[in-house]
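Two entries, shown back to back:
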Amino acid sequence: MENTFTLVERDDGIAILTIDVVNESMNTLKAEFAPEITEIIAEIKANKTIKGLVIISGKADSFIAGADISMLDACQTYEDAKALSQQGHEVFNELENLNIPVIAAINGACLGGGLELALACHQRVCTDDPKTMLGLPEVQLGLLPGGGGTQRLPRRIGIAKALDLMLTGKQVRPKQALKMALVDDVVPNTILLETAVNMALSGKRHARKATQSMVDKALETNTFGRNVIFDQAGKQVYKKTQGNYPAPNKIIDCVRQGMEKGIEQGLLAEAHHFAELVMTPESAALRSIFFATTEMKKETGVADDVKPQKINKAVVLGGGLMGGGIASVTINKAKLPVRVKDINQQGLSNALAYAYKLINQGVKRKHMTPAVRDNIMAKMTTTVDYTGVKDADIVVEAVFEDLALKHQMVQEIERECSEHTIFASNTSSLPIAQIAEVATRPENVIGLHYFSPVEKMPLVEVIAHAKTSPQTIATTVAFAKKQGKTPIVVQDGAGFYVNRILALYMNEAAQLLLEGNSVDGLDKALVKFGFPVGP
């Protein structure tokens, strides 16, 4: 049987521990790995010729993407879940207590349990690859970091920054990680191992110190200041969650206990709260959504034997907010050239300005250089007539909700484009079958309903009418996924899916209003219930 962990000692005395989970595209930590890791650590301790240890991934694109979530479903009781957390504590403590330098060499996703393992190492080096991301996203599953993350992260980067990462689940890029001292160096992937080996050979067992602002330093070095941070974090959490999610407050409590009573007490609190959260209905529901979303990524909307046609170029009709948003996710996420067509130059200027504003945020946040932004923007071209659209594989129509105008668009696209070009309408209310009535190729007509603002809302509805071909559905679903969306295939019924549900919700709100309830009261009640905005 192939092993997940391979230990190789080099001539210079540095041992390389490679993690490569068999038959998986990404490395994830599983409970059954604990005995294997413990055995390897014992082997390292016994070998006096080993001067340092480098932990690296055998996968091309991931260090460790987190713990295997499915093992949480196997936990029948609080005690089962607590034992899982404590097992992680024991293994990572053993790693941290090795008397040789232990270096994590990180390329690709280093999330959840993966980052907790890296934090248990004495130093960390990561690559500058765009796929390299570090974070503790457990809160998004209604959980908290259960492998010592609530204790080691604040001690590494400071309480305020650690709470920000753990309470939001946000992921940081290499440059940000270096700035906050989450990693000690950032290098190209080609010299990752070499750099890690040199760090181990230096004999240092301490990471570089995190630089903190004077305010953070003043607050974090005394009980009163720390209480201010924890109280502010609690208020921010309540504002966002309305008390509907237990995990954030338990994260704050773990950090508070660890900083006030020491790391041992903090780890006890972490294991206790982790186990409590695993058993909550909130976490069960969020984990269910996670698994469903993962399954959705495999969904094509049609039978498995129907393959989508390749999309090399898209056209967007209409330069309004929707058109500009659709164009921006096409060039930025899907990396496809897009031609925007509008009836006047002003509409085209607006679409370009809107896309530029969205993509330039990456430059402002230092996620990309101006040169990369300009290369992305170069994929977006404009026209007031139909020049440069002949080779379009898909046309997304985002014009006014007027059936006659949409009929005109269908006819013009059939005239100007090729016979395989898909016509996708971003209508929110008009039946797709009606839009397709004037088409000579109705099998190419489909609905592709985005939500505003396009760049932020993950859902899109793919609406097939009776004559839409399976290949058109498969191609449209694949296109939406490339744009970073979660597409759902729905039938051509009134309101499609989202507005059909929304109609009942708004109708009930109207009934309550007629019964004498106030608009403000209704909105507050629904936000308190858990909706991001009221009716």
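entry 2 starts here
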Amino acid sequence: MHPRAGTIAQASDLIDVEALLADYYDLVPDPSVPEQRVAFGTSGHRGSAFDTAFNEAHIVATTAAIVEYRAAQGFDGPLFIGRDTHALSEPAWRTALEVLAAAGVTTMIDSADGYTPTPAVSLAILTANGAPGAVRTTGAGLADGIVVTPSHNPPRDGGFKYNPPHGGPADTDATGWIANRANELLASGWRDVPRVPYERARVADTTRGFDFTGLYVAQLATVLNLGAIRSAGVRIGADPLGGAAVDYWGRIGSDYGLDLTVVNPAVDPRWSFMTLDWDGKIRMDCSSPSAMASLTAVMQGDSAPYDIATGNDADSDRHGIVTADGLMNPNHYLAVAVDYLYGGARPGWPAGAAIGKTLVSSSLIERVGASLGRTVTEVPVGFKWFVPGLLSGEIGFGGEESAGASFLRTDGSVWTTDKDGLLLALLASEITAVTGSTPSQIHAGLVDRLGESWYQRTDAAATPAQKAALKSLDPAAVTSDTLARDPITAVLTEAPGNGASIGGLKVVTDQAWFAARPSGTEDVYKIYAESFRSDEHLAEVQTAAKAVVDAALGG
């Protein structure tokens, strides 16, 4: 923990925006250097212009690759493009528009020239392709999209992600092809990619304005009980953390007559108003107690100005929920959301709609599902795994341990197939309005009924070879039959919900579990662990987990 974690950023913590933007245009990547190549992780390509990892060349090449990919797939409808408030998002958005205009792609940009949350782009794509009814993912005229965002990453970073016609994060088949082609263009001549100067691209016949905000806000009433929030007079404090939701929250409050205050409407690409995260960096992680320290301070004591306070990350696909009891652990809130939504609040949902969770999310969600007689579908890490189920209605709610989730409209049709931080933030107020209890109070009731759990993620050192071995482990590599003195009941390398590889290992007992996955960016592997006994037992599980993994890797 950094000594200044949770305190307001100082001048020395802030980036030089002018220097960052200059490097975006001036530095040219060397594709023979792995760190300077295009690489799509779970949420697109990310990097900093300072490191020659997110520069004009990357965006030219990646956009050109997307143009080729969508043409090869027959996606010839409009492309919806949005951006967040990171300093690099504006120039990258402009660069992409120059390439798209030259390629003759009909491109939908925000008609108010504003910022666009990731869920608003997802909703626009799905609406263009037939939502809220049957969504088309094959055939002529299909829409897709690009979101220019590195999510909650520090201010120095940029990000660029592609959403195909299903509206959610692209699968590895798409991202792998796009990244490979982009790197070919980097090596063979990205400067030869056709472009139209921005001033001309902005007014091209193929560049059209689209009211992302109007569509999103108007349709919120199809997925939330906003009337209950209004009638109950729930006092809401919404902090966009300087992100893309900054104008959305005010519009939601005014259009639906809610007692909603935008806690901080400021947009600053340096994020000078943020409190430092656990490692001393500025990071807009709305699930981090350090990053959310300012908002949690406001909610202290009996005179707190809000019943529910919420935060979002820069592209608004994550949520943070603050009550008088403090910032909720994301796993705790997911369990509460599941209990509420499946416990009678959504009678229009398909009777067999399952609960979707990633395999590193809390097992409390599984206990809630069992208590409600609902199937829990456990998938690998990554929101993309929920997309098919949300489209078909086979999954009513999909949630990740990292504070990302979405769920169906009240009639059981699809809402968004990407994470929606505004939706989950507003759900906290609906829960309070309908039940008369805050989500943290409801979680306390779940603990009394189903048991308390202790959950944590830690990192352990690993060589590249060990990481590769962990990613392809066979369950037989685990030779121990106990974990922290309890019999092992399951050893998983594939997700039970869909049979997909988890890229690591999960070991389960009746009272605990751990999962280990290699990091995609550092020489470590991540250990997620949970105990339903005690904090001391959790530490024992973590120690045993490292021993099990080390033994399986031959360490």
